[in-house]
Design goal:
This is BBS7 protein. By secondary structure, the chain is of the alpha+beta class. The strands form ten sheets. A six-stranded antiparallel β-sheet has the order 37-39-40-41-38-42, with helices on one face. A five-stranded antiparallel β-sheet has the order 32-33-30-35-36, with no helix packed on it.
C-alpha cells in the first residue's frame, strides 16, 4: 500500500530482459513516487522519492520507438522526470496558474491540461494553447509515427471530445456521457493509429476513429448492469490469444476484461469486485516470470494483482509439500509482521496518551481525505452520492434543508436510522444516519429531489480514527435539479418561452443559470452569447436556454420549468438590485403535451400501488385455501411476481406522490401565468387523478 492515489498514477515499466518481470511505479497524493518489483510474493523497493505536492498524473516517456522507461509526474503546476533508477533529470515549472489535472507525453511533446486550459510544449518550449468551454478531464494525442501529424484530443465534461489542430478546434465529437478517461485502442491507436477508446462517468464505453476530417463512431457499450463510472482503461493480451483485451477499472471497484471475439463489439469476459474505486489499471508480467497479471491501484493506495498463474498446483505429493512449505514461510512472515505492528500501535498509543495529558498538550485533528461524487442518474432521475474515505467509515450523517427522498441502494450494507426534524423554524427536512459495518470505506446513497425546491444537502463523514473527527461536505440541490445537459432537442414540440431584458452582464446571467441548472460550467463562456440544451430526466420534457449580455430567452415544453425559472431568476436579480423586464409566451398546447408525457408513468405507478395493496390479502387467501387455482389469472400473476413488485415499490418510495405533485404544479402554473389562483380546485384535481383517466384529466385542465 502507498498513500491515496489519483486517477492514472500507476504504470508498469517495460521489462529489461527477454523474460524478466516488470517493475511497478506509482505516485500518490503525499507526493511520493514509489518504484518496486515483486520477488516471491514480496514487494522489493527500487526507489522512493521524498514527499511533496499531490501527484495528479504519472506517465512514461522516452524517445519515439524506444522503450518508454522515463517516469514523468505532474505535481501542482510542475512536471518532474525520473530515470528508472529514481534519479531526477527534469524539473519543468510550467506557466499554468492552476494545478495540472491531465497529462500526456509523446516523444519530445508534452500535453498538459488544467481545469479549462490546454497547453502543448515541445522540448519544454510553449507551442500551442486552447481554452475549453467546459472542464477537461483527460488528454491524449494520436501516435505521431502513424498519423504523421499532432492531433491532441480533449475529453470534456460537457459530453464532448474536442479534437484540436495546433491552437484551434478541428471538430467536436458528441459522446453519450461526460468522458472521464481516454486511451489509444490496442495501446497504439489500432491499424490506422486513429482509434481511441473513451470511458464516461456514467459507466459507458465507446470506440471512435478520429480521422483528419470527421469522427467515425465504431461501437458503444451502455451500462446495462448499472455499474460505476469508468476511471481507467488499458489494452493487454491477458487471455494469451494474440488479441489485446480491454481492461477497465470503475469507481465502484469493478474490474472488467472485455475481449473481441467477433471483430465488432467487445464482450465482457471476466469481472472482479474490489472494495474501492480503481484509479489505475495495467496489464503485464509482475509477480512471476511467464505469468501475466492485471494490476490495479485503488483510491486508498492499495495495489492488487490478479494473475493467470494456476493457484492449485497439479502433480504428486512432492509438489504439494513444496507448496505448503512456501505457504508456511509466507504465513509465519505475515504473523511476525502483524505482531510487530501490534507492538508499534501500543507504543504509539501510550505515547499519544502521555503527550495529550501533559501540560503543554496541543490537540491535533488527524487529516483524512474523502473522495466524493454527486451525480444525476438519467435512468431513474435520482442523485447518487458516493463517499469514499481512505480509512474505514464509522458513520455518515446526512442533513438537508429541502425536502428530498432517500432511495434504497442494493450495494449499501449500512444501517440507516432517521431522526425526526422540525422543518418550520430552521428549515430542516431530513436527518438520517448511516452506521457502517467494519471495514466499509465506500458508501453509496441515492436521493431524489423535487424541482423548484432548492437548497443544500450536507454529509458529515466520521471515519474510525482516534481522536474522533468529522468532515462536512456540501452539495447544492439546484432549482431545476432533475435536468441534464443534452446535445440537441426536439424543436417540433409545443414550447413556452420566457424572455428577460435588463442591465445585467453576460457573467451575471451566466451565474444565475449556473445557480438554477446542473452541469453548466462555472466559467463564463467565451464569445458574445451561448445556448445550452437540457432534458428533464424524470419526465423527458426539455429546456433550451440562450442568453447574452442584457437579454435571455428560455424555452420549454413544460410550463412548470418556465415558472420555476421565472421565480428564481427574478429573486436573483432582486438580490443584486437589477431591474428585470420579464415577458412570457405561453403555449396552451404544451400543457396537454406534458400531461400526455406524465400519464403513462402515472398509470404504471397507480397499477403498481394497487397490486402491492392486494398482495397481503391474496397471500392470506393462499394460506387459507391451500391452492389458488380458483383465482383469476391476473391475481395469480400478482402472487407469482409478489417479491419483484414489493422490491420495485420499496425502491421507489413516494413515486406516485411526486407525479401527483408535478401534475398539481402544472395545474397551478398554467393558471398562474393567466393571473388566476386555482388552489381551491386542487382537491377536485386529486379526485380526478385517483380515477386515472387521461381524457378526463385534460378536460379538467381545459375547463378550469
Amino acid at each position: 500500500q502507498v498513500g491515496v492515489t489519483a486517477q492514472k498514477t500507476m504504470r508498469l515499466l517495460p521489462a529489461s530482459g527477454r523474460k524478466a518481470t516488470q517493475k511497478v511505479v506509482v505516485g500518490d497524493q503525499d507526493g511520493v513516487v514509489t518504484c518496486f518489483g515483486i520477488k516471491k510474493g514480496e514487494a522489493v523497493p527500487v526507489f522512493k522519492t521524498l514527499p511533496g505536492q499531490k501527484i495528479a498524473r504519472l506517465e512514461l516517456g522516452g524517445a519515439l520507438n524506444t522503450p518508454q522507461e522515463k517516469i514523468f509526474v505532474a505535481t501542482g503546476s510542475e512536471v518532474r522526470g525520473f530515470t528508472k533508477r529514481g534519479k531526477q533529470f527534469l524539473s519543468f515549472e510550467t506557466n499554468l496558474t492552476e494545478s495540472i489535472k491531465a497529462m500526456y507525453i509523446s516523444g519530445a511533446d508534452l500535453f498538459l491540461c488544467a481545469s479549462y486550459i490546454y497547453n502543448h510544449y515541445c522540448d519544454c518550449k510553449d507551442q500551442h494553447y486552447y481554452l475549453s468551454g467546459d472542464k477537461i478531464n483527460d488528454v491524449l494525442c494520436l501516435p505521431v509515427d502513424k498519423v504523421n501529424r499532432i492531433t491532441p484530443i480533449l475529453a470534456c465534461q460537457d459530453r464532448v471530445l474536442r479534437v484540436l489542430q495546433g491552437s484551434d478546434l478541428l471538430y467536436e465529437v458528441e459522446v453519450p456521457g461526460p468522458p472521464t478517461v481516454l486511451a489509444l485502442n490496442n495501446g497504439n491507436g489500432g491499424d490506422s493509429g486513429e482509434e481511441i477508446v473513451y470511458g464516461t462517468s456514467d459507466g459507458k464505453l465507446g470506440l471512435i476513429e478520429v480521422t483528419g476530417s470527421k469522427p467515425v463512431p465504431k461501437w458503444e457499450i451502455g451500462n446495462e448492469k448499472k455499474r460505476g463510472g469508468i476511471l481507467c482503461i488499458d489494452s493487454f493480451d491477458i487471455l494469451g490469444d494474440g488479441v489485446k483485451e480491454l481492461l477497465v477499472g470503475r469507481d465502484d471497484g469493478m474490474l472488467e476484461v472485455y475481449n473481441f471475439e467477433s471483430a465488432d463489439d467487445p464482450l465482457l469476459r471476466y469481472d472482479h469486485a474490489l472494495s474501492e474505486s480503481i484509479a489505475s489499471i495495467q496489464g503485464g508480467c509482475v509477480g512471476k516470470d511467464g505469468y501475466d497479471e492485471i494490476l490495479a491501484s485503488t483510491y486508498a493506495g492499495w495495489l492488487t494483482g490478479l494473475t493467470t498463474e494456476p493457484v492449485h498446483r497439479e502433480g504428486g505429493s512432492g509438489e504439494e509439500l513444496k507448496l505448503s512449505q512456501e505457504m508456511q514461510s509466507k504465513i509465519s512472515s505475515l504473523r511476525n509482521e502483524l505482531e510487530h505492528l501490534q507492538i508499534k500501535v501500543l507504543q504509539e498509543r501510550e505515547k499519544y496518551q502521555q503527550s495529550s495529558q501533559s501540560s503543554t498538550a496541543v490537540s491535533s485533528v488527524p487529516a483524512f481525505s474523502v473522495n466524493d461524487k454527486f451525480t444525476l442518474n438519467k435512468d431513474d432521475a435520482s442523485y447518487s452520492l458516493i463517499l469514499e474515505v481512505q480509512t474505514a467509515i464509522d458513520n455518515v450523517l446526512v442533513q438537508s434543508d429541502v425536502p428530498i427522498d432517500l432511495l434504497d441502494v442494493d450495494k449499501n450494507s449500512a444501517v440507516v436510522s432517521f431522526s425526526s426534524c422540525d422543518s418550520e423554524p430552521n428549515s430542516n427536512f431530513l436527518l438520517a444516519t448511516y452506521r457502517c459495518q467494519a471495514n466499509t470505506t465506500r458508501l453509496e446513497l441515492k436521493v431524489r429531489s423535487i424541482e423548484g425546491q432548492y437548497g443544500t444537502l450536507q454529509a458529515y463523514v466520521t471515519p474510525r480514527i482516534q481522536p474522533k473527527t468529522c468532515q462536512v461536505h456540501q452539495y447544492q440541490i439546484k432549482p431545476l435539479s432533475l435536468h441534464q445537459r443534452t446535445h440537441s432537442i426536439d424543436h417540433d414540440r409545443p414550447m413556452n418561452a420566457l424572455m428577460l431584458k435588463g442591465q445585467f452582464s453576460f457573467a451575471e446571467i451566466h451565474s444565475w443559470v449556473v445557480f438554477c441548472l446542473p452541469e453548466v460550467p462555472e466559467k463564463t463562456p467565451a464569445g458574445e452569447s451561448i445556448t445550452f440544451y437540457f432534458q428533464n430526466t424524470f419526465l423527458g420534457t426539455q429546456l433550451e436556454s440562450t442568453y447574452r449580455k442584457g437579454e435571455g430567452c428560455f424555452k420549454s415544453d413544460n410550463i412548470s420549468t418556465i415558472s420555476i425559472l421565472k421565480d428564481v431568476l427574478s429573486k436573483e436579480a432582486t438580490k443584486r438590485k437589477i431591474n428585470l423586464n420579464i415577458s412570457y409566451d405561453v403555449n396552451e398546447e404544451s400543457v396537454r403535451h406534458t400531461l400526455k408525457l406524465i400519464h403513462p408513468k402515472l398509470e404504471y405507478q397507480q397499477l403498481l400501488a394497487k397490486k402491492v395493496h392486494l398482495i397481503d390479502a391474496l397471500r392470506e387467501l393462499q394460506v387459507h385455501e391451500g391452492n389458488v387455482d380458483f383465482l383469476l389469472p391476473k391475481y395469480r400473476s400478482i402472487l407469482e411476481e409478489a417479491d419483484q413488485l414489493l422490491e420495485e415499490y420499496k425502491r421507489q418510495p413516494a413515486h406516485l406522490e411526486r407525479l401527483y405533485g408535478m401534475i398539481t404544479d402544472l395545474f397551478i402554473d398554467k393558471f398562474k401565468f393567466k393571473g388566476t389562483n386555482v388552489k381551491t380546485k386542487v382537491p377536485l384535481l386529486l379526485e380526478i387523478l385517483d380515477g386515472c383517466d387521461q381524457d378526463g384529466l385534460i378536460a379538467f385542465f381545459e375547463a378550469a
